[in-house]
Each structure stands twice: as structure tokens, then as C-alpha cells.
Amino acid sequence: MLREKGAPIPHADRLLLLNELQPGRTGVIVEIVGGRGICNRLQAMGLCIGSRVRRVASAIGRGPVVVEARGAQFAIGFGMASRIIVEIENGGQDPPGRQP
Fold first, then answer.
1. CA 45 to chain centre
2. Which of the four CATH numbers 2.30.30.90, 3.40.50.20, 2.70.98.70, 3.40.50.2000 does domain 12-92 have?
3. 41 vs 10 pLDDT, higher one
4. Angle (nearest 5°) at CA 30 between 82 and 67
5. Is the dihedral of CA 10, 45, 99, 77 positive or negative?
6. pTM above 0.85, yes or no
7. Which of 41, 45, 72, 97 is the most exposed place for a label (fewest CB within 10 A)?
8. What pLDDT, on the 0 to 100 scale, is given for residue 11?
9. Is 26 in contact with 94 (CB distance < 8 Å)?
10. Which residues make beta-bridge pairs with 55?
């Protein structure tokens, strides 16, 4: 969905780049900033707008970001992760007793 230039971003306080999401926190992909190549690569992994992802771990610094989605874990490069915008769910914490 497009919005007018200068219009406020809804739920901006709950939006983060995937590489900024803390390990153990969960979010939903709301936007992928990039061209066809990155979108196709992420879609091949099952990561598309609306996908629920949980950040599992990351390397120190600008290393790969490990995420879990649809029961599988993926390592995504730091640059690619910085192009994925997620909306934090439930304050980013999973409900007690529930696994993603």
C-alpha cells in the first residue's frame, strides 16, 4: 500500500529493521526495501510481506542475522536484513508458553 509523500507512517513506533530486532523477539514483515533481486531471493526462502519472523541470533558486528520463519531457520546477510522492515508483535515478546 502506498502513502502520500510526507504522510505519517502508521505504527512507526513499532517498526524496526530486521537487523535491529533483538534476538528472541518476533515481528511481521511489513516492507522490503529493494529491487526484484532481493525480493525474489527472500520470497524463495519464504520471507515475504506478512511473514512472521523471530530473530534467533546474530554474529558480532555486521555479520549474518539468523531468523526463524515457518519452522525453518535462515541466515541472512546484514545488508539484506537492513532492507527488511518489521512490525514488532506484542511488544516483541512471544506470549508465555507459545513457540513461534
1. 13
2. 2.30.30.90
3. 41
4. 55
5. negative
6. no
7. 97
8. 63
9. yes
10. 67
Q: Where are the domains of the chain?
A: 12-92
The reported pLDDT for the residue numbered 94 is: 47
Residue 97, judged by CB atoms within 10 A of its CB (0-12, 13-18, 19+), counts as exposed
According to DSSP, the residues that pair with 39 across neighbouring strands are none
Residue 36: strand, helix, or coil: helix
CA torsion angle 37 42 46 47 (round to 10): -130
Query: pLDDT tens across 24-73, in order?
Result: 999 999 999 988 999 999 999 889 999 999 999 877 777 899 999 999 99
Residue 61: how many other CB atoms lie within 10 Å: 6
CB 17 within 8 A of CB 84: yes
